[in-house]
Amino acid sequence: MNSERPINPRFAEDVHFNQVEGPPKYRTWTDKPVRYFTVVDKQGGAVLGYVWGADEDDAAAWVPRKAAGGRALAEGGHWHSRLRDAKERGKQPSQALAEMLSNPEGNRGRAVAESLAEAPDSAAVKALAESE
Fold first, then answer.
1. Strand order of the sheet with strand 59-64?
2. CB-based contacts of 76: which residues, under 8 Å, 6+ apart?
3. In what helix (H) or strand (E) does residue 48 lie, and over which residues does it extend?
4. Distance CA 33, CA 121 (A)
5. β-pairing verdict for 34-41 and 109-119
6. Annotated domain spans of the chain
7. With contact defined as beta carbons under 8 Å apart, do 108 and 75 qualify?
8. Scanning 54, 59, 95, 125, which has the fewest C-beta atoms within 10 Å of its C-beta?
9. Which pTM value belongs to this model?
10. Sign of the dihedral defined by the CA atoms of residues 103, 92, 38, 118, in that order
11. Which pLDDT tens digit goes with each residue over 46-104?
């Protein structure tokens, strides 16, 4: 008895995929210096996460604070959306951060303008979010 199965002829043909471009996005990491600010919970003031950006690599992202759990993850949708909108309008990451700080209200959180700081790269901001 032969254990080999016959090959389905549909799978013998080459498969071609067409790559479809999505909306423009900032890169989600960089090894270049970044500027970032803190987003705090409107109820109680706990840190929910950080928004960072780096013009040199056209990179920006939201990093949820690990200790804030689901509330930080839920708040991330708001900040991701604002970053995506800024990129679609052709804004540099530093301009996107400035816009967010000038209109600091999020869904559950609020950007803290006084928290604007610099880090050596995006990994440092991620480490900050995981260490607290």
1. 59-64, 47-54, 34-41, 109-119
2. 49, 62, 64
3. strand 47-54
4. 5
5. antiparallel
6. 32-131
7. yes
8. 95
9. 0.83
10. negative
11. 999 999 999 999 999 999 999 999 999 999 999 999 999 999 999 999 999 999 999 99
